[in-house]
TrEMBL record:
Entry EC no(s): 3.1.3.11
HAMAP family to which the protein is assigned, alphabetical: FBPase_class1 (MF_01855)
GO MF annotations, alphabetized: fructose 1,6-bisphosphate 1-phosphatase activity; magnesium ion binding
Keyword field contains Transmembrane helix: no
Domain of life, per lineage: Bacteria
Quaternary structure and partners: Homotetramer.
Identification of the protein by name: Fructose-1,6-bisphosphatase class 1
Pathway annotation: Carbohydrate biosynthesis; Calvin cycle
Domain Fructose-1-6-bisphosphatase class 1 C-terminal: 206-331
Catalytic activity: beta-D-fructose 1,6-bisphosphate + H2O = beta-D-fructose 6-phosphate + phosphate
Positions contributing to substrate binding: D124, G125, S126, S127, N216, Y244, K274
Organism: Nostoc commune NIES-4072
Length: 335
């Protein structure tokens, strides 16, 4: 074993966050502790998923419908609660807002000093849960502004440039955590024998162009003509490959590594599309921009969108700079 590999084997997530900030300031300590908690939630979710088919009561639906009008799976509830319970013990987070909860969840005992809000999608790609396919969790951390004494959380209705940290956990053949605190994008793999996320790549850069396009083409006739025209362009241009898994964390992770573009456009019936800004599109936009890519609604950068409500949706076109620009030019100029 060389010193270098030993060093790499020892760079845990919390150490990495501290190194990024190069100081022992209170902020650095806080962010390191917060990322550590997110990692713990990821480990708990990964552990349950790894044995899901062997245990009673893990897979399938609860019978409830969430605030988005979607059927809730048992795993959605479990993962949602895991994040709440790990942050209850952290002392740092006063509020959590997620895809599965109509209103933010307050932890009153953390509120006088709790300065942070966690925004998260506990299970991204829920339809993959019962099939043993890739899933994700998406997260972002924001500073709480004001006291929010009326629990209306209006300070969350600001643009994505206010995010302090963002990233995702990918539950694939291995469990990965990819994050940014505004200083590049870094990936970690969970070593189950150590129970630690270990650094695997620092300062990941997304290629400027890639051959993958990732979109649910089943919606073809529901889209605006400009999106259909872009897809026709892809079909007649040599070298493109379609990849769409049903979990955007895994599709966007592929694009982060290999380049390309992921699209979830609006439809004529739902011009805002499906994905939600605060805990899906804005965190991923922040991360992909930090890696040198772009994320847009087609008309404006995702990070400039100011939501009117907590669960606001946005169209999403995200990935390599050149590929995103190509889609944008179809939307804005028709070619
Ligand atoms: P979810 O958080 O309820 O799972 O929804 C988000 C997911 C994305 O991961 C994925 O890209 C998309 O929804 C799939 O939706 P569709 O089946 O409409 O293509
Ligand atoms: Mg989701």
């Amino acid at each position: 074993i060389t010193d270098k590999s030993l060093d790499r084997d020892c760079t845990t997530l919390s150490r990495h966050v501290l190194q990024q900030l190069q100081s022992f300031s209170p902020d650095a300590q806080d962010l390191s502790a917060l990322m550590n908690r997110i990692a713990l939630a990821g480990k708990l979710v990964a552990r349950r998923m790894s044995r899901a088919g062997l245990m009673e009561g893990v897979l399938g639906f609860t019978g409830e419908v969430n605030v988005q009008g979607e059927s809730v799976k048992k795993m959605d509830v479990y993962a949602n609660d895991v994040f709440i319970s790990v942050f209850k013990q952290s002392g740092l987070v006063c509020r959590l807002a997620s895809e599965e909860m109509e209103k933010p969840y307050y932890i009153p005992e953390n509120c006088p000093i709790g300065r942070y809000t966690l925004l998260y999608d506990p299970i991204d790609g829920s339809s993959n849960t019962d099939n043993n396919l890739s899933l994700g969790s998406i997260f972002a951390i924001r500073q709480q502004e004001g006291t929010d004494s009326d629990h209306k959380a209006t300070d969350l209705l600001t643009n994505g440039r206010k995010q302090l940290a963002a990233g995702y956990i990918l539950y694939g053949p291995s469990t990965m955590l990819v994050y940014t605190i505004g200083k590049g994008v870094h990936s970690f793999v969970l070593d189950p024998s150590l129970g630690e996320f270990i650094l695997t790549e620092e300062n990941i850069r997304i290629p400027n162009h890639g051959s993958v396009y990732s979109v649910n083409e089943g919606n073809f006739w529901q889209w605006e003509e400009s999106i259909r025209e872009y897809i026709r362009y892809v079909h007649r241009t040599e070298g493109y490959s379609a990849r769409y898994s049903g979990a955007m964390v895994s599709d966007i992770h592929r694009i982060l590594v290999q380049g390309g573009v992921f699209l979830y456009p609006g439809t004529i019936q739902n011009p805002e599309g499906k994905l939600r800004l605060l805990y899906e599109t804005a965190p991923l936009a922040y991360l992909i921009e930090q890696a040198g890519g772009r994320a847009t609604t087609g008309l404006m950068d995702i990070l400039d969108v100011v939501p009117k409500k907590l669960h606001q949706r946005t169209p999403l076109i995200i990935g390599s700079k050149e590929d995103v620009a190509k889609v944008e030019s179809f939307i804005q100029n028709g070619h």
